Amino acid sequence: MEKRNELYAGKAKSVYATDDADRLILHFRDDTSAFDGKKVEQLARKGMVNNKFNAFIMGKLKEAGIPTHFEALLSDNECVVKKLDMIPVECVVRNLAAGGLVRRLGVDEGMELNPPTFELFLKNDAKGDPMINESLAETFGWATPEQLTTMKTLTFKVNEVLKQLFLDGGMLLVDYKLEFGLFHGDVVLGDEFSPDGCRLWDKDTREKMDKDRFRQGLGGVIEAYEEVGKRLGMRFD
Ligand code: 5GP
Q: What is the pTM of this model?
């Protein structure tokens, strides 16, 4: 497969065209951003760690029957994915209260959410990824009701698979964000799954092992990501 021109540079990944119209190459950079791109830093090894982490998780999701865009690892920092028409809606599931939910509703951080919650956000940095709902998504043409139903079903299926996977490694999957796109009309999981887009706490100490370490200036960001990977049986060397 031939790597061609850069199509798009996001906050942490760059996307390249290939000689196959249905395939893209994702390049995971060391850039780390938070607060809709207002805080940005380079963290050594992050691109490699997230690329391998994402490949591992996407493999687990595929085994569980969840359609994903992931095809293959290409190098330390690159992978090949299906080219999707992205749906500009972020799906968030929460098992424990943290982050935006705590800020919005004033509930206690760490409160167990039973059943887990499901929220939609518009992918729009300039507007700070505002919260939306099914009605707004349909009216503004961001996603059809059928697509939203599939996205919700798949997002909860991911929860069942990953909650257990992380628990087996002594971690709590607090919450996470997924993005979907269309591949020849079918809804498929896109983007990435890494500690950049989820919250993971040590099961016993509740120590944060995800991007909140960067957001809150706690340090040890990549060390925590690697520890998460190691607990799941990954190797990063
Ligand atoms: P919150 O709404 O609490 O800020 O985020 C909920 C979950 O979704 C967290 O795990 C957070 O990392 C993830 N998330 C929400 N929006 C984004 C985003 O724009 N980028 C990334 N990487 N993760 C996000």
A: 0.98
Q: How far is CA 5 from CA 79, 81, 98, 202, in A?
A: 15, 15, 39, 41
> In the chain, what are the domains?
3-82 (3.30.200.20), 85-220 (3.30.470.20)
Q: What is the pLDDT of residues 79-108, one digit of tens each?
A: 999 999 999 999 999 999 999 999 999 999
The residue whose CA is least distant from atom 18 of ligand 1 is 197
Q: What is the DSSP string of 160-224?
A: HHHHHHHHHTTEEEEEEEEEEEEETTEEEE-S--STTSEEEEETTT--B-STHHHHTT-S-HHHH
What distance in Å separates the CA atoms of residue 5 and residue 77, rounded to the nearest whole number? 17
Name the amino acid, one letter, at 222: I
Mutation pick for ligand 1 pocket among 35, 177, 179, 193 (CB with most ligand atoms within 8 Å):
177
Pocket lining for ligand 1, CB < 6 angstroms:
90, 92, 98-101, 129, 175-177, 196-199, 211
